[in-house]
Amino acid sequence: MAQNNHSAPARYGWFTQVALAFRREWTMIFNDVGVMLFFIALPLMYPVIYTLIYNPEVVRDLPLAIVDNSRTEMSRELIRRIDASPSASVYQYCTDMAEARHLFGNNEVSGIIEIPSDYEKNIVSGKQATVPFYGEVSLLLRYRALLSTLTDVQLVTAEDLSASKIAQTGLASTGLGGLPIENHNNFLGDPGQGFASFIMPGIIILILQQSMVLGICFIGGTARERRRKFFGTDPLALDGLSASATVLGKALTYVIFYIPMTIYVVRFIPEMFNLPHQGAVIDYLLFLFPMLVASAFFGQTVQILCKERESAFIVVVFTSVAFLFLSGLTWPRYAMNDFWLWISDLVPATWGVEGFIRINSNGASLAESSRPFIALWIQSAVYFCTAVWVTAYIRRRSIRKYGPLPSDASTITSD
Asked: pTM for this structure?
């Protein structure tokens, strides 16, 4: 039998109200296919899809057109070293730049190397030799690979020339030779210099936050629609519970629901695709717990923007791009101005990405990631307060706007 049961839970103690809110939210999740899609399918599929898109992580044997106007032993040695590198491959020797530009315009080559006629003459006379390189930057991964290869070849060539000059002076027996300072690249957290290894550890943390927030906003938007229909009250919610108990009970539901999703994303995805995973599992799982808590309260705060069910897509899709940039993955946070740095500090995923990469990719301990860890707990406390205010505000505003429930009307109670 239908009855008005919204004020009944108020007689229970606060912890009992938390348990009631937890139970009701759990039921709401499993009765909503859309929310299940966001809470389960999205975290399961998105990390796999993104990682497959970014594989292979590095580019190999990019075709180059060579215009050798020098045609000397040194120019041939330079070309041989470029062709022997893993990232570049000599596609064709061209007689002039017009022929090379034709290949470049037809997308047959990714770059052009023009060796000037005075290349060997300048080197022998002690002058600086210049070798122009023309590359397309439509895909920065290719440009980066070619530029790194040419830089490495340049350093090796300079080292050989220095050793040859020293040998000519008769000082070879002294052990002198090569460059005064050797260049060695050590990519912390990304030894393979792969794009997926660089970006995916941060992307999967952002996926966890955004999928949770999307589901919470979806639930909130649906509840707002029911309040408009039922004179300001939600027949499937327990409005008689205190706002703080409701917020905490819901957050517990979301966090517990996301614990297995988090283990899958941060533990098994790196194993499946051989992404960096240097840190201790217990450290980054303990670190991510407050991020889940902060995201749960953050989602209940931003749901104030969702007046309809579909509003969740607009809010979360719009913020996803902004949160990606604010996390520091594509642009370092230390290079941001104070305003954007302050905005990025408000996003749980920003601190989650920073701490997780420290632990997972660079092998830091939880103690060494204490700053983002503490920041996430502070965010949890702040967003708990804002979520309580939002929950109470939505209840009050709905009653004021849509009017009290008529005396002859009844509401539906869902077990």
From this structure: 0.76
